[in-house]
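Exercise: predict the fold of this chain.
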Amino acid sequence: MIEEKSTTLMAENLKDKYEMVIGLEVHAQLLTKSKMYTSDANSYGKMPNTNISVITLGHPGTLPKVNRKAVEYAVKMGLACNSSITRRNVFARKNYFYPDLPKGYQLTQDKNPICVGGFVPITLSSGEKKNVALTRIHMEEDAGKSMHLAGEVDTLVDFNRAGVPLIEIVTEPDMRSSEEAYNLLSEIKKLVVYLDVCDGNMEEGSLRCDANVSVRLNGETELGKKVEVKNMNSFRNVSRAIEHEYNRQIGLLEKGEEIISETRTFDATTGLTASMRTKEDLNDYRYFPEPDLSPVVISEEWLSSIKAELPVLPRELFDKFVNTYGLPEYDAGVLTDQKEIALWFESLCSHTNNFKAASNWMMGPIKSYLNELTLKIEDFPLKESQIAALIALIDDGKVSFTVATQKLYPQLISNPEKTPLEIAQELNLIQDSDEDSIKSVIQEVLIQNAAKVQEYKSGKKGLMGMFMGQVMKKSQGKADPKVANKILTELLDN
C-alpha cells in the first residue's frame, strides 16, 4: 500500500515536471447527396462497392468535377469558426499507395486551404473559457475501407466511401490537457450538427479524430517530437489515448530514451497505443496541382448567400439562454448540447415567460420520457404550447408541480389532443385557492389535533409539516399549498 502511494506521488511529480501539448486533426464527412468529385451517391450502409463509378475508381481518361454543395458546407464551417475564407481554391494530388485508395492519390488542398486560421471557443469544467486556435480547414476526399474478416488471410476492400467529401479541421498545438481536447471535439461535433454539414457520428466514422501529442519540460518553448494517434471512435477514447500517450512519452524521457516521431494506433480494449509507422515528411506525398480541376472561385455574391443561410450556432443560443432568459450556465449547456432540443426549447420559450420552469420541464420530465422510450424530440407527442399551458396552470396556482408531473402530465401524454386545463378539470385536479374554504378545512384539522396544537404552541415547530399533510389529505390534495401554509401559520401563531 505504501509502495503504491509513493509510485502515485512520483508519477504526479513527474507530470508536474512536464507539459502536455496537443493538436487535433478532425475529419468530418459532409452530408452531400453525391461524392466530392463525382455524382456517385454519398450514403452510408449500402452493399459494398455499389456507390462507385469509373471516376471513383480512377479509370484512365475520367474527369472529376468539384461538388458545389461541399464547397458551401466547408465555407459554412469556416464562418462558424471565425476563419478567413480563401476566394480562389485549387486542388492538389497527394500521392501515396494504399489498397483502399483506388487512384493511387488523394485529391485534397495543399497550399491554399479554403479556410485559414480562426478559433473554436470551449469552456472547461472549472469554468475557464478558452479559444482553441485553428491552423486551417481544407476540403478533400475520403479513402475506401479495408475489411479484415475473422479467420481470413485476404483483405477485402469496399470503395463505397472512396471519394466521399471531407473537411479536415486542423488545430494549432494549442491544448494542454485531455479535457481541453475532449471539449474541443464536443464543440466541433455540435458545430457540424447545428450547421447540418455532418451528422457527427463517430461510431460510423463520419466524424474522426487524430491526436498529435508531444511533451516538453515546463517552461520550455520548443515543441517536443510529435506522435500522431489514430483509431479513436469516441470522445472518451480520444481522452484515454491522449493520457496514455502523455504517460508513455514521459516514461521514455525519464529513462533517457528518444521519442520517435511516428503514427500510433489506439486499442480501446487495453487503453494502450502501438506503433504503426514512422512519420512521413510532407515531401514524401509529392504534392502537385491537380491538372483536371479548374480553380473554384468564391465570389462575393456566393459568399454572401452562404452567410445568409447560416443557422443559429450553439454558442449563440447558449448566450441567449443565459443572458436573455436568465438561465444558469449549467441549464444552457445541457439544453444546447443537442440541436433539436435547443430549438424545441427556444420555441417553448416563445409561449411562456417562465423560462426557468420551461428549462426544468425540458431537463426533467420531457428528457426522461424521451430517454426511456429512446425517442427524439420530433417524436414527442406534445406541442410546445401544451407544455407552456401546463406551466401556466402551476404558475396560476391551479395545480401543484407534484400533481402536474405525477398525474396531469402522464394523462396529457396519453391524450395529446386535449389541453392541460381540460384534463385537470376531468380528473378534478384543480387546486382550491379560496381562502375561506381552505380555512374551514384547516380549522377542522386543528380541532381534531388539539393536543398537537398545544405541543406546537409549546415550541415544537416541526409539527407544521404534520398539519400541512393533514390539510392536504383532508382536501384530497386540492388545497393550494401556499394559501394553506399562510392560513395555517396565522392560526397557529395567534
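Check your answer against the key: Residues 235-254 form the longest helix (20 residues).
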